[in-house]
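Deliverable D5.2: sample structural annotation.
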Amino acid sequence: MKKFIATLALLIFLTANTASAAIMDIPDNYWANIEVNDMVDNNIIPLDANGYFNPNAPVFRTDFTGWLLKVLQQGPPNIIEDRPFLDVDSNTRGYYDILKSKEVGLIYGYNDSYF
């Protein structure tokens, strides 16, 4: 898992642009200011409706999967499965990101066919 996160951070760093406007809850002296601004500027992770990044908020697996797909520049899935996992259907948050991640081999799910 540590290698995975390090690889994601490296990919984000390599796609860096110059930071634009300040993020409401990320001060200039925040330990990850540059990285957070890069992720926002590159449309990898969105701000909320009030312009906050919310660095201490929980992250859903489906959101993280979607962000990783953006870093890897993966488009929508080529194959639409009705039930890629027993606990995933078309109403599941991040459904298409889950499908694409399964398609490109980023996720496999558990042995019991659950996401």
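Annotation notes: The chain is about 35% helix and 0% strand. The two ends are 17 Å apart (CA to CA).
The annotation will be released with the project's public dataset once the embargo ends.
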